[in-house]
Amino acid sequence: MTGTIAVRAGARARQTYYWRVRNARTRHSPPSAGQAWHIQPGHPGGAYCDLGHELDPPSHHAPTLLSRSRPTGRRGDERQFRGGCLACEWEGPVHSGDEFGKGGNEAVEDAHDHCFPGWRTLPPITTVEDRWAVPRNRSRWAQLIARYPAGWIDQGAPVVAWRRYRREAHAPPHAGRPRYELHVTRPPNDRGRRPTDQGALF
Ligand SMILES: [Zn+2]
């Protein structure tokens, strides 16, 4: 597929068009479908996602991740990412990236800026163990989400966790955790804080 094709914007329309190319319903060759914007596999609304595939758009803004490949000649294909929304036609700026979090993380964050403005100030989970433990402990979970704006949890607001390493990829939602887990940089003034101080946050 070459040249500019008039395709409706928005994650749902992009994904539909992508499958039309893949299923040979357009004049473009099916193997070129990856060059059309589509929902990154495993992200909401995309292939391999077990979050659910409702035909009706959600009643609130819902983040997802779009990607496409761009042929670059000898260097192989370049991956590009941008944030998308399952409820409206919003699309974020394009980020060049790779399979290891580069580009994709920025795009997922753009989508959260669209859907949950201010998410960066949500209370973080500070240890890797607590990423698993807090959602399974009723009182700790209640303490965490009490600091979220009203209605956000039901709309799939993210869990924010301090990242383990640079460019740790954000984890997409799934049936067991219907929200992104966003991995953010630990603030500089928290670097000396020991994990045992975690209780002070709650
Ligand atoms: Zn939206």
- Percent strand equals 15-25%
Helical run tally? 4
SSE succession:
HEEEEHHHEE
- Seen as an oligomer or otherwise, the chain set is single chain
Structural Rg: 18 Å
Main beta-sheet annotation: 4 strands, antiparallel
How many domains in all?
A: 2
Walk me through this protein's architecture.
The protein is of the alpha+beta class. It folds into two domains: 1-113, no CATH class; 116-202, no CATH class. It is built from four helices and six strands; from the N terminus they run αββββαααββ. A four-stranded antiparallel sheet has the order 1-2-3-4. It has a two-stranded parallel ribbon with strand order 5-6. It is globular and about 55 Å long. The chain binds zinc ion (ZN). The site of zinc ion has 6 residues, from loops.
